[in-house]
Design goal:
The protein is an alpha+beta fold. It has 8 helices and 23 strands. The two termini are 32 Å apart.
Length: 487
C-alpha cells in the first residue's frame, strides 16, 4: 500500500499505531460498513487551488513550434516559434459531474513570413481573448478501476482574431489561404498547450482524487490487526457531486478487529448514514495553493474507536520516562501515605481501558478536539519500594480524555490536553489512603495518559502536512496540504 493509501487509514484511525499492512483475505460484511462515513471534499476555493496547481505545473510561458505550411504550389508559411503564456485558471463541476477546467491563453501579435517564387513578405497574426477548456471525469473504467479520464478533446477559442495581410500576400494565393493559416496556427498552439494542460490536470487530480484510497487491508502487527475497508460509492460515471459550496466524493468505511484478551466482548456501535453539513468549516490560513479535506462522520469515528479498543491497542504500558514527566514530588502531591514508601527510581504505569470508548468531536480553542470517554478504566502506577518495583496506586473509574491531532511538517501526533475523572476510586495495595482530591489526580493522569498516547500516531515521512482540523456536525474535518506551493 503506498503513501496515499496509508494516509487515509491513518487519518481515519487518528490513534491507530502504524504496523504491518496486509491485504484482507475476504471483504468485510455489510453489517460493519459505515455508509458514506468518509468524504473527500474540495470547497469552491480549494477547487480553484487545484486549477492554480495545474497552471503552476504546466508553467506560465511556452514556446510553440509551428511547422511550415504549404500554400498551394508556389508559397508557404515559414516555420516559426510563437510565445504563448497561460493566465488565470478555473475549475468547476458541471451538472453531469464532469470537471470543467479552463485556462486563459495569451498570444502576443506575431509576424509570419510568407515565402514564394517572388520576394518574401509578411503577415501578422493577432489573436485575443484565448480560452482553453477541457472536461475530465473521476469515475470507474470498464474494469471497475478508478481513474481520471478525458471526456473530450480540449477546445481553444479566441474571442477576437485578425490576420493582417497589408501586402496582399495571402489574398493573392486564393480565398482559402487565410483560413488555412488561421487553422494551422490555432492547431499548433492548441496541440502544444492542450497536451501539457491535460497531463498536468491528470497529475494534480490524481493527487487530489486518489484512486488508491480504496483499500482492503489489515493494519497492525501481531494477532489483533484492525481490518480497514474503503470504497468510493456512486454511479460509475459520477463519483463526485457538488452542492454549490463544495465537491464531495463519498466513501463507505468498514472496520473490524479480533477481540484482544484484555477487553470485554462488546458489539460495535450503531453506524447510520452521515449527513455532511451544507457549508464547510472556515478554512485555516495557509500558503498552499493545493489543499483538500477529509471529513469523517461521528459514527465512523465511533466504529474506529470500537475497533481500536477491541484490538487491545489501548491496553498499554507507559512509555519510558514517566518519572521525568511526574517530577520528584508526585507521590506526596497525590497520597502522602504512598510517598512515605516510594523510593527514587523508575516509575511505570499500566492502562486498561475498560469498556469500549465513546468518541466525540468537540470544539477546541484552535480546531477540533477528540474527547474519549472510557468507562471502567484502570490505571496502575508502579514505583520502587524497598528496592522492588511494586504497584503503589490504582485509579479506577470513568476517564474523559481530550486530545488534539497535531501536524508539524509531515509529522503527525496526538497531544493529550486534559484528563478528567468521573466517579473514580483511588486505592493502594500497600497502604490505606485518605481522601484524594481530584485536583491532585489531574497532573498524574495527564502525565500517564500522555505517555500512553505518545507515539501511537507514528506516520512515516512524506505524508502531506496537516493544515488544520475542525468539527463538522458530529464529525471531524481534516485539511491537508497538497504539496504545491506558491512561487
Amino acid at each position: 500500500m503506498n503513501t496515499t493509501s496509508r494516509l487515509l487509514v491513518a487519518s481515519l484511525a487518528c490513534v491507530l499505531a502504524c504496523g504491518e499492512v496486509q491485504p484482507l483475505d475476504a471483504p468485510l460484511p455489510q453489517s460493519m460498513v459505515s455508509p458514506a462515513g468518509v468524504r473527500l471534499v474540495l470547497t469552491n476555493s480549494e477547487l480553484q487551488g487545484v486549477a492554480a496547481a495545474v497552471r503552476l505545473l504546466v508553467g506560465k510561458s511556452h514556446a510553440v513550434s509551428v511547422a511550415p505550411l504549404p500554400l498551394g504550389e508556389t508559397a508557404a508559411i515559414a516555420a516559426t516559434t510563437i510565445p504563448v503564456s497561460l493566465g488565470q485558471a478555473s475549475l468547476s463541476v458541471a451538472a453531469d459531474a464532469a470537471l470543467q477546467l479552463e485556462l486563459v491563453v495569451t498570444v502576443a501579435p506575431h509576424g509570419l513570413v510568407v515565402k514564394g517564387k517572388g520576394a518574401a513578405c509578411s503577415v501578422q497574426w493577432t489573436p485575443a481573448g484565448g480560452l482553453l477548456s477541457t472536461r475530465l471525469r473521476f469515475g470507474r473504467d470498464p474494469l471497475g478501476a478508478l481513474a481520471v479520464t478525458l471526456l473530450e478533446p480540449p477546445d481553444l477559442v479566441f474571442g477576437a482574431e485578425s490576420l493582417d495581410d497589408v501586402s496582399g500576400c495571402l489574398a493573392a494565393l486564393g480565398a482559402d489561404a487565410e483560413a488555412s493559416v488561421r487553422d494551422h496556427l490555432r492547431a499548433a498552439v492548441r496541440g502544444t498547450v492542450a497536451t501539457k494542460v491535460v497531463d498536468a490536470a491528470r497529475d494534480v487530480l490524481a493527487t487530489v482524487l486518489p484512486a488508491d484510497w480504496e483499500v482492503a487491508v489489515a493494519v497492525g502487527a501481531g494477532a489483533n490487526p484492525i481490518a480497514v475497508q474503503t470504497r468510493f460509492i456512486g454511479p460509475d460515471d459520477a463519483l463526485i457531486e457538488h452542492n454549490g459550496a463544495f465537491l464531495q466524493a463519498r466513501i463507505d468505511l468498514a472496520v473490524d478487529a479480533p477481540r484482544h484478551a484484555c477487553v470485554l466482548d462488546q458489539a460495535p456501535p450503531e453506524s447510520g448514514a452521515w449527513v455532511l453539513p451544507i457549508q464547510a468549516p472556515a478554512a485555516p490560513q495557509g500558503a498552499a495553493v493545493l489543499r483538500r479535506s477529509v471529513a469523517v462522520g461521528g459514527a465512523a469515528l465511533g466504529r474506529f474507536a470500537w475497533a481500536i479498543h477491541r484490538a487491545g491497542m489501548l491496553c498499554r504500558g507507559n512509555a519510558p520516562g514517566l518519572e521525568a514527566r511526574l517530577g520528584p514530588n508526585w507521590a506526596a502531591q497525590v497520597a502522602p501515605a504512598v510517598a512515605a514508601l516510594v523510593q527514587p527510581g523508575t516509575v511505570s504505569a499500566r492502562f486498561w481501558p475498560g469498556g469500549a470508548p465513546d468518541l466525540r468531536v468537540i470544539e477546541g480553542e484552535a480546531g477540533a478536539r477528540l474527547e474519549w470517554t472510557l468507562p471502567d478504566a484502570q490505571v496502575e502506577i508502579a514505583a520502587p519500594v524497598d528496592g522492588v518495583e511494586l504497584v503503589v496506586l490504582r485509579i479506577s473509574g470513568t476517564l474523559r480524555i481530550v486530545a488534539a491531532l497535531r501536524g508539524v511538517g509531515d509529522a503527525w501526533s496526538i497531544e493529550v490536553e486534559a484528563v478528567e475523572t468521573d466517579s473514580v476510586t483511588v486505592d493502594s495495595p500497600l497502604v490505606a489512603l485518605g481522601t484524594v482530591a481530584p485536583a491532585a489526580l489531574a497532573p498524574l493522569l495527564q502525565a500517564v495518559i500522555a505517555g500512553i498516547f505518545d507515539g501511537v500516531l507514528a506516520l512515516p515521512p512524506g505524508f502531506p502536512a496537516l493544515v488544520g482540523t475542525a468539527r463538522a456536525g458530529d464529525g471531524l474535518w481534516l485539511w491537508l496540504d497538497g504539496g504545491v506551493q506558491q512561487p
